[in-house]
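Protein modeling request. Please complete all fields; requests missing the sequence field cannot be processed.
Requester role: graduate student
Desired output: 3D structure, token encoding
Chains: 1
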Amino acid sequence: MKTNPSISILCVLPKALGLEMEEILPASAGYSCRQAEAAHLPAIRLTDLQFWSALPLETADVVFLSLPAETICELCEMPEGIEAFRQVRDSLPGEGAAVVGVLSDCRPGDIVQAHLLGLEGLLAHPFEGETVRRVVQQALVKNQQRRKQIFRQDKVRQLCRDLNQKRRQLRHKVDILCRDLVHSNQFLTKSVQELQRLCDFQNGLAGEFDLGYMLHKALKMIQHQIPESSTAFYLAAEKRFEAHLSGLWYDRADDIEELEKLFSETLVRMVSARQRRWLIPEAERCAELTGKQKKLLAGLSLLALPVLAEGELLGILIVYRHAREPLREGDMQRLEMYVPPLGRAVRSTYILQTHIGSL
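Delivered output (359 residues):
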């Protein structure tokens, strides 16, 4: 509300009523009346924001609004008409003027319905000077209370929006933490399973004294870690390597000698010279193989790992299967865990076998 002691009145009334209101609220008494002639206001206009925006409400303290019985009935009969009227008033910018409904030709029931509009005051024609001035003062007080309530409601809505936003952000963070926890549990479970298999592998090889049987047993256990694969082991014997094949999923019995020779000329030679692992997802695409070797190994995916114990090369582990499901880096990492216990088993069994043979 303005600091000017003069109370600005905007009369949205028929001309005759507006002139009468000017006489009751003269400038000499501290009132400033302006006219916005409205012979008849249909209910639909009162729920239209453009109608209210066209009125000079920014400079008005109190608005006298014409509400004949016909308009009140139309508002009450409109679907959500009263609620629409309230929402339009609350959405007006600025502090908003107090609105006093001026009733004409109204019955008692119309007055009851007019109260539902949430106006700051009601006046029935004919007017009485003292009654009008009292209604104006009461309307100013009520409007100030209404604006405070609207301000508090807006503040509560903003707080609720901020709270909901923070809750959504927190829920998103909790979802991420839960997913990370699930993934961590899955990784832990997988690691424990891998360690259990590795422990079973090492326990299964412990105490063996026959080197050939131990290698056959070890290769069978390793083969189960890579589905539909075959395994081979080339045992270092002085300056050469002796083939020990097992798990013949891919090859037939009459292919053994050819595979022994082929692996000896390719994988075994290269890995023994470098003592590094070698992964060939598709043999025919390997640049380090000759054209003939690529042709012989076509359709295979191969992996070769050196088996060391205390820095000594004891042998070479080879895993192979069809290239339609090529071996990957993850397969190599999984098998690398089996190399140290295999090396220890080969060394201990070899020493035990040599010791028993010397007796």
